[in-house]
């Protein structure tokens, strides 16, 4: 009986460990392995002459490992045993190699390389908003207006059609994803006062050539008044707050800066007011008004209002005082 009980106990333990052992065998220690070594560059795709910071990511080396940095084959003495160094990117299209050599306590060596090809990538913004012809600055985008963007890569303009372009504006990927040869896109300005526009340029084999990000800042439309001379045209100095009427009449033009060009060309509301009373402006141009002297001396208020009926924020209103 005792022999039978011992046999049963041994059989029970065998079955118990026979079931438990495979469970331990499924444990994968590789999931906790150290990540691969590498060199992180910031920025990852530098422009010519830009300072680049290289950081060693290596969690496999022991504490007695020495670190040697080389740039284009030359040792960077001041970076000895440091995990980070910096250098200046070279000429456009040139190839440079940043290299780190790790030597352990028994003389074993590991080498990590990273190749840099400095390249210009510019984003040209063309906001489709109104500014007068004599304005020396550039148009700025306003809420609801359209902006055209063009990416220019310095490697070779003739290769622009062969590149793959991935555009992103804020959280939205434009054009639904990467598109070959699409170095131009259009987008509408959202309510956010400042939104990031990014583009990544790569070759058909997936190699990233360059990337660039810029802030697109919107501007509220502004309104200024200018005198129009029958002999010299529009005077380029704006009348601020007031205008002195010297003769019996004068023509003033309202210039709405940064107003959506679609609204400027076809406004839902375009009206002048003199002392609170609506007037047609007495001119064929909706942005010009003829001011008549109604009394020898005194003042009158002149206001202008232009706006879209579809987009409430696409509009501007302001006024000045007319001194007789």
What features would you describe in this structure?
The strands form 7 sheets. Strands 11, 12, 13, 15 and 16 form a 5-stranded antiparallel β-sheet that branches. Strands 19-26-25-22-23 form a 5-stranded mixed β-sheet, with no helix packed on it. The model is unreliable at 1-34 (pLDDT under 50). It has 2 helices and 26 strands. Helices cover 9% and strands 46% of the residues. The termini are far apart. It has 324 residues and is mainly beta.
Quick summary of this structure?
This protein has helices at residues 2-25, 261-265, and strands at residues 38-42, 51-57, 66-71, 74-75, 84-88, 96-103, 109-116, 121-127, 129-130, 146-153, 164-169, 172-173, 179-180, 184-188, 194-202, 208-217, 222-229, 233-234, 242-244, 249-257, 259-260, 269-274, 277-279, 288-292, 299-307, 315-323. It is mainly beta.
Secondary structure elements and their pairing?
Blueprint (H helix, E strand, L loop, with lengths): L1 H24 L12 E5 L8 E7 L8 E6 L2 E2 L8 E5 L7 E8 L5 E8 L4 E7 L1 E2 L15 E8 L10 E6 L2 E2 L5 E2 L3 E5 L5 E9 L5 E10 L4 E8 L3 E2 L7 E3 L4 E9 L1 E2 H5 L3 E6 L2 E3 L8 E5 L6 E9 L7 E9 L1
Parallel strand pairs: 19-26
Antiparallel strand pairs: 1-2, 2-5, 3-4, 3-6, 6-7, 8-10, 9-21, 10-14, 11-12, 11-13, 11-15, 15-16, 17-18, 17-20, 20-24, 22-23, 22-25, 25-26
């Amino acid at each position: 009986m005792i022999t039978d009980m011992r046999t049963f106990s041994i059989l029970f333990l065998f079955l118990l460990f026979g079931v438990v052992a495979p469970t331990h065998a499924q444990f994968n220690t590789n999931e906790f392995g150290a990540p691969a070594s590498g060199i992180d560059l910031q920025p990852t795709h530098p422009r010519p002459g830009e300072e680049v910071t290289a950081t060693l990511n290596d969690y496999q080396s022991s504490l007695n490992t020495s670190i040697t940095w080389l740039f284009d084959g030359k040792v960077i003495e001041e970076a000895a045993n440091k995990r980070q160094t910096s250098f200046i990117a070279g000429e456009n299209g040139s190839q440079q190699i940043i290299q780190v050599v790790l030597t352990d306590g028994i003389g074993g060596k590991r080498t990590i390389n990273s190749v840099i090809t400095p390249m210009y990538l510019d984003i040209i913004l063309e906001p489709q908003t109104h500014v007068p012809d004599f304005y020396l600055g550039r148009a700025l985008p306003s809420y609801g207006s359209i902006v055209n963007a063009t990416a220019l890569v310095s490697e070779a303009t003739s290769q622009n059609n062969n590149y793959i372009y991935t555009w992103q504006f804020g959280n939205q990927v434009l054009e639904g994803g990467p598109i070959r040869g699409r170095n131009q896109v259009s987008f509408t300005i959202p309510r956010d006062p400042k939104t990031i526009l990014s583009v990544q340029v790569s070759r058909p084999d997936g190699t990233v050539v360059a990337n660039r990000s810029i802030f697109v800042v919107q501007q509220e439309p502004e309104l200024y008044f200018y005198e129009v001379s029958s002999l010299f045209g529009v005077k380029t100095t704006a009348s601020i707050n007031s205008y002195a009427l010297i003769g019996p009449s004068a023509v003033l033009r309202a210039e709405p800066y940064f107003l959506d060009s679609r609204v400027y060309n076809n406004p839902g509301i375009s009206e002048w007011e003199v002392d609170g009373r609506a007037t047609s402006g007495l001119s064929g141009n909706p942005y010009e008004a003829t001011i008549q002297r109604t009394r020898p001396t005194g003042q009158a208020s002149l206001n202008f209002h232009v706006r879209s009926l579809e987009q409430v924020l696409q509009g501007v209103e302001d006024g000045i005082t007319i001194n007789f």
